[in-house]
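Morning run. Coffee first, then this:
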Amino acid sequence: MTSISTKATVHGAISIVNAIATGKGSALGISLETTAEIHLRKGEGRIINNNRNSELFKYIIHNSIPKKILQYNDIFLSVSSDIPIGFGLKSSSAVSSAVSLACYGVVEENIDDFKVLDTAVNASRKAKITITGAYDDSTACYFGGFVITDNYSNKLLKRENGPINLLALVLLPNNSSRKSPLKLKILPDFFDQAIRFAEKSDFWQAMTLNGLLVSSLMGYDYNPILLSIENGALSASISGNGPSIAVILEKKDLTTIRSILERYGKTLVCQINNSKASIEKKIG
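And here it is:
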């Protein structure tokens, strides 16, 4: 086989509604990026990558590229990302989706988006880096915009564009470790109410309710969320299982709210992303 190179780019996302309590979740794409590059060349079936998630990557590769191709070629995989790891900004979902897309790009001309996502999500479940499968996170990273999903059945229930005139301000708190999300299952009816807000496209109400629930149940400091809303933010919430906090605001309020949040840690200013994942392919 001639050498083939693919480069897949997938964006990050923030939570609208955490899916752990009910299996239904919602998320919104933001402009942070993850890139996965694959170079396939004649060889002995070796898989070489620059990332510690080797088991995750091996699962994706073996379930997307046919065995008859893998046997007689070497695969070189590299991943780069500007999404902070371990803060609830969907870094794992973005990585697994980007690697899956890059793999399918090696062997298919007309790529099935949902097959890419299923492979990525199933790999994440197998590697035990997600509780629900994080289909909401993966679809928001892959398709951009707002999504609502059933994570237990890998089903996209709704997708619509997010408002590009707004900003997402992300707080990475100082001295705040991630906490067990299992307590989120205590109040499923309240998370179900948040999903109902999202289903009506009242995403900011859904997001703020999610923030109140997640911070109180998991023991995160609610003050950054409260202060953001008091100073003009449209919505604010813990993203994922934390500890990051995502704030949606108008550009005119950025300076004020950012100065408040910087008392608590580092901040990142992100655009709302509505763009689908992209792939480039070179042969020879």
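The mean pLDDT is 93. Good start to the day.
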